[in-house]
Amino acid sequence: MADQAGYRTLSAGVEATGEFTDRRSRFIAQLRHVSSEREADEFIAEVRARHHDARHNVPAWILSDGRERCSDDGEPQRTSGMPTLEVLRGAGLADVCCVVTRYFGGTLLGPGGLVRAYTAATQEAVAAAGAEGLLVTMTQVTRVTCVMPYGAYGRAERLVADCGGKIKDSVFAEDVQLTCAFLAGHEVRFVAAMTELMSGEDVCLVSEPVFAEF
């Protein structure tokens, strides 16, 4: 489960792969970002269609809310799905699904060989994701929206930077609406500074923290 410090996941819309071969059996690990059980099921179905001629397509997924699941998909019990899931856990990943496709090479590998092979293929996919810059860190982020007169906008911009925040959006109408983001807890100093800038008027709407890239 994701903790307050955050977690790592795969960027949305990309796929990382890794491969391991043992005695002509090919193990192809395919890793993708998912945000729900439904998305995991859809990815598993996609991989099974892609590799419909494979002997096994072993899935494992873990979500940031703590839910996780794996299946041996016909392999001997606890030789494939659990080792795959353990690699995801060990890498500190969440909101990801990995499906390891096995093309049987004609030689039985035994339980120990299967555990090693599924582990190695999944590790290769995670390593590839890191090497290709596809892994991102999700942290607790708080958004703050402020409405102010034009004359205060320049000072507000500087306050965002001084307090370690990032401006996400600015809307210029009768007044200026500024939306910015802070690591959870860091918004307190900014809100206090804005209240002081606006002579005691509370112009900030603070949202509940959510996990996001920062």
Salient structural properties:
214 residues, alpha+beta, Ribosomal Protein S5, domain 2, 2 domains, five-stranded antiparallel sheet, 5 helices, 35% strand
What does the model show?
By secondary structure, this protein is an alpha+beta fold. It is built from five helices and eleven strands. The protein folds into two domains: 7-133, Impact, N-terminal domain (Ribosomal Protein S5, domain 2); 137-212, Alpha-Beta Plaits, CATH 3.30.70. Strands 1, 7, 8, 9, 10 and 11 form a six-stranded antiparallel sheet that branches. A five-stranded antiparallel sheet has the order 2-3-6-4-5, sandwiched between helices. The longest helix has 22 residues, at 110-131.
Structural topology:
Layout: E1 7-10, E2 15-22, E3 25-33, H1 37-50, E4 56-62, E5 68-70, H2 81-90, E6 96-103, H3 110-131, E7 135-148, H4 153-162, E8 166-172, E9 176-183, H5 187-197, E10 204-206, E11 210-212
Antiparallel strand pairs: 1-7, 2-3, 3-6, 4-5, 4-6, 7-9, 7-10, 7-11, 8-9
